[in-house]
Amino acid sequence: MEVEYTNRRRDSLVYRTGDSLNKYLSIFWSRIQEHYESSAPRNDMLKLSPLDLHRKWKSEPTEMSSAIRRISPSVVSVSYFTDVQRTVDCSGIIIDWDDAHGQATILTSAKLMRSPAKRGDYYIVVRLANGKILLAEEHFVDYYHNIAIFKVSSDVKLKPAELDSPPLETLEGVEVVALGRNFHNCKLSESSGLIRLDYPYFGCEFLSSSTCSSTQASEGGPLITKTGHVCGINFFDDHQYVHPLPTTSVINSCKKKWSSNGIVVQPWFGLSVIDISELPRDELETAPVCYGNSSSVGNLVYEGSPADKVGVRPGDSIVALRGFTVSSASQYTEALSVVFDELHPYCPGQTPDIMLFVKGNTGSKAVHAEILRVDDRRFCYCWLGVPSFMTPLIGSQTYRACCIGESTNFLVDEDFILYSGY
């Protein structure tokens, strides 16, 4: 890609639509750091007034505030950039530090990576609590469990948080806080609530629920108890509540498989499952009609999926999975977990035939699973989230471009703001 200079609007760089902008990464990176430098927290001497000290004495530290204080240095902001534009904000948590390589591991939500941009047309930026901005390297993306792992290099040691948590079934009614970090001002956000084990009917077998209300920028941040245990990472739904997804045991299992195999696979049937018996009354009235004795039924069937090809329809009962009888959503989840563990030694194309048996008003059907890598975008249907997912973000740099055709020129002015060329 050739770079030309033009006198039209100061000193500008010209490149053509469709060309990779990686060549300009160092320039964009410099502009991004300069743009956000003023919003970083001040690092000069802290000066407290008598009023500050009075507030400190008046508010005795609680167990929860102590837990937040301990984990807050590990909570970061993670953002998706195209050129100089910040398009998607999430939060993340530092889960590992490699002393030998000066590298930290960041865990966040895979919703950050749902943009259709091709690799090389975007990059991921991590912002720490102190305002420092680091370029992240993609390490592992799992759309099925909605997790993504990135690596960042740092010249100072970063504090990791431990992913250890009691079994989720012991946390019913436990007080929790959803944490996130704002990319623009680096401030920590907190939202308190309670863990609920009620089936949240989002179409995810590994998702529990909480009463924490927050914003989508907190997605990917940790949900913690007052003892400091991380229950999971936050999933933001379209009712502005956050939920622990997935549990730390699932996260650790995925990490272990990725480290040993370099690949994680999952059976894909192309349908979401709900438990009729767990639905509230108002939801039950609009739920699909169940055609069998099982309370576990198909809710959504995706066009072109293995389930769709054999005629599975909403309301069909889930009868059995790989030899396990299924009569509830929890049993379906347990059976899927067993299958997930069995797939560990396999790769796509070398896996056993995994069948899901379904009963509908036209009889019984056998659905043969496709074995997909978990970074396959067909798993994205679970995590649609809010429609405003690509809305402009506070503090982001201006981005202007008009794509008229493949031959359209774009200009980058001296401030590296894009505008349409000839």
TrEMBL record:
Any one Pfam family match given in the protein's UniProt record, by short name: Trypsin_2
UniProt xrefs under Gene3D superfamilies: 2.30.42.10, 2.40.10.120
PANTHER family: EXPRESSED PROTEIN (PTHR47389:SF8), OS09G0436400 PROTEIN (PTHR47389)
Protein name (record): PDZ domain-containing protein
Species name: Heracleum sosnowskyi
